[in-house]
Specification:
about 350 residues; Rossmann fold; UDP-galactose 4-epimerase, domain 1; 2 domains; 7-stranded parallel sheet; 4-stranded mixed sheet; binds NADP nicotinamide-adenine-dinucleotide phosphate; binds ligand G4F
Length: about 350
Amino acid sequence: MKRALITGISGQDGAWLALHLLRHGYEVHGSFRRGAERTFSRLHRLGIADDIQYVLLELCEATNLVRAVDRTAPDEVYHLAAQSFVGDSFEQPAYTLDVNATGTARLLDAVRTVRPDARWYQASTSEMFGAAGAGDTLLDEHAPMVPRSPYAIAKLAAHHMVGLHREAYGTFAARGILFNHESALRGPEFVTRKVTRAVAAIALGHQQVLTLGNLEARRDWGHAPEYVDAMHRMLQAERGDDFVVATGRAESVRTFVELAFAAIDVSLAWRGTGSDTVGVEVGTDTVRVRIDPSLYRPAEVGWLRGDASKAARLLGWRPQVGLEELVHRMVRADLDELAGDLGR
Ligand code: NAP
Ligand code: G4F
């Protein structure tokens, strides 16, 4: 039986990956950090909370990392833990660098010291491409990286540090450059889940208006459970390598909003421009979407679209669930969750 250590077990990807590895017969160790509440709500939602072995792990604490690796003795390390919200990284740049970049360096060193043969998966990100995605450029593993946020800068440093361990110490290290991936387990601060939760609340009459930032940003949105499968495939390959994981289709936040309202049979008409834009419900003329400029980012990544043909060729990985289906599933799940909450 293989043993996996997943850092960041409480997050969206941690939960989906744990489910995937348990189904493949792994012993799964999941890391958590101290907090006032230890609920593991996503793991409970997937019905696997009792199947995980939990280990305390804080990326800012080097000796704790050594002990965590020693205690879990993993064959595969999936390093997912991070300060993952781009917006907050502008408010907390030094903290984001410490957790995402220096934290990765600390954990790499702990694994090299205690468990040098363990295979490493690095949660790299399309955000590292940043400004290089402008003008609908199709981004593959060789595209330039022009980061535009403290989060992306920290992730790019971690990406290079993992590459260095591959080169200098012969570590089996895979770097997954994943584009945005979403699900009903996505954190509510990210735009997709913010939209689908609000649309569900509007459908049930508990919210009137959804307030957003930049409607024109385009993202390549895929289905999270498929993306954790790609992570697993990367560590079963012959050698550690780099892979873009994406759908190849980029749509705007505006289009995502339209699709989410369509899932509750509401058509939106857009009026105004820039921060004066409003989305109005066709038929009732009720304002359903407004812009709050305070939600604009100091520097924005306008366009991200990925080319995952290398993953298709070498890993046999291809995206399955399309954007319309993804949005529909997320709205449906939020309707069910909210209706359940209201019934309690
Ligand atoms: P997420 O839901 O925000 O989960 C992040 C996890 O990291 C949580 O378990 C969190 O624990 C943990 N964590 C945060 N700071 C930590 C620290 N100082 N020490 C130890 N653990 C810490 O993120 P996700 O969407 O699952 O993403 C997983 C990884 O993939 C992240 O590295 C993210 O940057 C990267 N990524 C995500 C996407 C995407 O579209 N989802 C795309 C590309 C790359 P708490 O619950 O205690 O906060
Ligand atoms: O949903 P977002 O916050 O995701 P973002 O910034 O693309 O980052 C996510 O994907 C990355 C992969 O590319 C991951 F590495 C990262 O960890 C995270 O999972 O924002 C998407 C877009 C942005 O352009 C943002 O400005 O939506 C725009 N947006 C417009 N209104 C909004 C909002 N974003 C949020 N979070 N909230 C809004 O109200």
